[in-house]
Amino acid sequence: MLVYFDTCVHDRNYDDQRDQAIVDDIADIALIIKLCKFNGHHILGSRMVALEHNGITDEDLRESLNRQYEETIDASVIITAAIDERAQALQAESVGYADSYHLAAAEAAGATVLLTVDKKFIRVVERKKLSSVLVINPLTFLRKVYLWKR
Nearest 5°: CA angle at 59, between 48 and 18? Predict the structure, then answer.
């Protein structure tokens, strides 16, 4: 199984942990990483994560996020002209700029699942049936996908 993590999944550890939902997401993401590594499933990312990280002005935070990203992924999808074209088509369907590149990269790599904690992104893709890649949050992945795809 190929599982693509978008930037918000990679960066969840740095969100406000006074919110229990964020704490739960962090635990779910950590479990998913362990399960994927243990069972030989591959975690994907793309250059879009690095581009989003480049916008962070706090150098220590940016370096920490980039280090964590590199330690987590098994492969990084290279953004090609075809991915760029697909991302533009997704943007025309109301998918946000960065999200469109994440989804286009996941599709190009043949990912089964794209993990995100962005509820709006999930809703837009589901409502419009924009992709064969399943765009879901970490808890849904653990409950409905991982147990059946092993």
Answer: 85
